[in-house]
């Protein structure tokens, strides 16, 4: 589908939220039994017995729906709220559990078990701010039993550990077209502990071809723990080769070192700097990235200075460098609906940093509606507006950048795990708009890929995409991404 799903829009947030649940579940609850709290005596009634029978048959989704109806006529049954919350936690549906527990909390506002279970479901949902507030309020109470206080401390410890276990930001994938690799399979706490505490080798490749040119980007990077398991040192080299019709091949590179890490409440950061070779020059380059989740909102900011203008073969041949920034804000209105807005500004030079070339403004708005959970299917739709202002005459004869594009897009998107070690993704849709044209044009976009985990130490991934009308290029664009990760 549209490049936003490979950048920092709703796609990563779906990925991020989709695999947080299994991590939290595995770390907090070693047992899958729903009855981890002593249950009070419940007067028998036919509806309650029906619910208990459904649970014994392990029809948990049906039991949750039955409990939702049951508490409307039996609002005083505390155990019904707890059972519904634990079942939702068991099958990784925090939204359904919170809907029940919020009603239970309004009926029993001081109940520590209900409140703690709400905090655990918020944690599974990825809403660390609300989870932290509930747990902090509970920890200040003086009337809790030693057993309940111990469970709260365990949840607080898990919250801190989870904030340090987010997948790291990766320089190369962001640097070239701001694309992201296919998310890895949902992993166990053991796997994440291994990844955070071990040396990590990444080898990535992105091949891009379009009318009149192409570019190949290859990255080799090593990452190793620097401060406990929360900050990592990384160093590597991104090498870019560009070709264009009637021109000889040219090479650019970014030799870098830096650090990435995770802070409280799921904040992630990455910063690296190094030498950039382009246009016969060696210049200083920099890249920074911060990702800040805040409950239903998420802010993602990136900034870069004098990095290879790697999306065009012609730009590499001309020694193109690019500086700029990107800011994305995502609002997750419900578990199945999110909206995002994004603004990107770049300033480009050619001949190294010698010659100004142009500035680009890009604004993007997207809506993402997950209308089916199994298989995972989303409707993604939005609007993109891009304007390139050249600083030189006849700029498009040097690099075939579109001076303007304004279009709407819509399509279907999916991200599903198959078995334990394979994740598949795919998108297909269309665009309608103007692309340096006086009238409307209609085009097609599609991509697909997979990630395969071979045990906890090796991962392969690949993705291919095609755009018949691209936002910034003349003509169609095909992109192939492959990579392999090793942990030692």
TrEMBL record:
Domain of life: Bacteria
Name the UniProt record assigns to this protein: Tetratricopeptide repeat protein
Residue ranges of the TM segments: 12-34
Keywords on record: Membrane, Transmembrane, Transmembrane helix
Keyword Transmembrane helix: yes
InterPro entries: TPR-like_helical_dom_sf (IPR011990)
């Amino acid at each position: 589908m549209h490049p936003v799903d490979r950048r920092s829009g709703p796609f990563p947030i779906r990925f991020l939220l989709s695999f947080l649940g299994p991590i939290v579940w595995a770390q907090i609850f070693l047992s899958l039994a729903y009855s981890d709290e002593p249950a009070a005596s419940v007067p028998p009634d036919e509806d309650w017995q029906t619910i208990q029978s459904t649970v014994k048959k392990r029809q948990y989704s049906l039991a949750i729906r039955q409990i939702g109806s049951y508490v409307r006529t039996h609002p005083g049954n505390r155990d019904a709220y707890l059972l519904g919350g634990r079942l939702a936690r068991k099958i990784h549906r925090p939204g359904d559990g919170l809907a029940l527990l919020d009603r239970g909390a309004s009926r029993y506002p001081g109940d520590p078990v209900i409140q703690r279970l709400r905090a655990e479901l918020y944690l599974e949902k990825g809403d660390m701010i609300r989870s932290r507030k509930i747990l902090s309020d509970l920890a200040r109470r003086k009337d809790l039993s030693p057993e309940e206080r111990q469970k709260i401390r365990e949840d607080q410890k898990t919250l801190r550990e989870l904030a340090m276990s987010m997948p790291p930001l990766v320089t190369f994938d962001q640097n070239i077209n701001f694309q992201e690799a296919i998310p890895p399979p949902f992993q166990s706490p053991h796997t994440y502990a291994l990844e955070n505490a071990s040396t990590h080798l990444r080898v990535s490749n992105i091949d891009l071809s379009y009318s009149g040119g192409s570019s190949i980007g290859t990255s080799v990077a090593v990452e190793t723990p620097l401060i406990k398991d929360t900050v990592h040192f990384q160093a590597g080299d991104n090498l870019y080769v560009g070709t264009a019709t009637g021109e000889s091949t040219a090479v650019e590179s970014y030799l870098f070192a830096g650090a990435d890490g995770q802070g409280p409440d799921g904040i992630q950061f990455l910063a690296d700097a190094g030498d950039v070779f382009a246009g016969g020059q060696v210049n200083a380059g920099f890249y920074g990235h911060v990702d800040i989740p805040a409950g239903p909102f998420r802010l993602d900011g990136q900034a870069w200075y004098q990095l290879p203008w790697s999306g065009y073969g012609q730009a590499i041949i001309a020694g193109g460098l690019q500086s700029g920034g990107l800011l994305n804000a995502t609002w997750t209105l419900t578990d199945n609906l999110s909206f995002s807005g994004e603004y990107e500004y770049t300033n480009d030079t050619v001949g190294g940093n010698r010659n100004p070339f142009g500035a680009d403004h890009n604004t993007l708005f997207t809506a993402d509606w997950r209308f089916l959970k199994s298989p995972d299917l989303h409707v993604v739709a939005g609007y993109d507006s891009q304007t390139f202002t050249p600083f030189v005459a006849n700029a498009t004869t040097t690099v075939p950048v579109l001076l303007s594009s304004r279009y709407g897009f819509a399509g279907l998107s999916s991200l599903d795990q198959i078995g334990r070690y394979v994740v598949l993704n795919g998108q297909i849709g269309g665009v309608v708009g103007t692309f340096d044209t006086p009238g409307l044009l209609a085009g097609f976009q599609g991509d697909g890929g997979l990630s395969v985990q071979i045990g906890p130490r090796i991962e392969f991934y690949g993705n291919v995409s095609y755009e018949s009308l691209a936002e910034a290029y003349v003509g169609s664009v095909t992109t192939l991404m492959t990579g392999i990760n090793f942990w030692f």
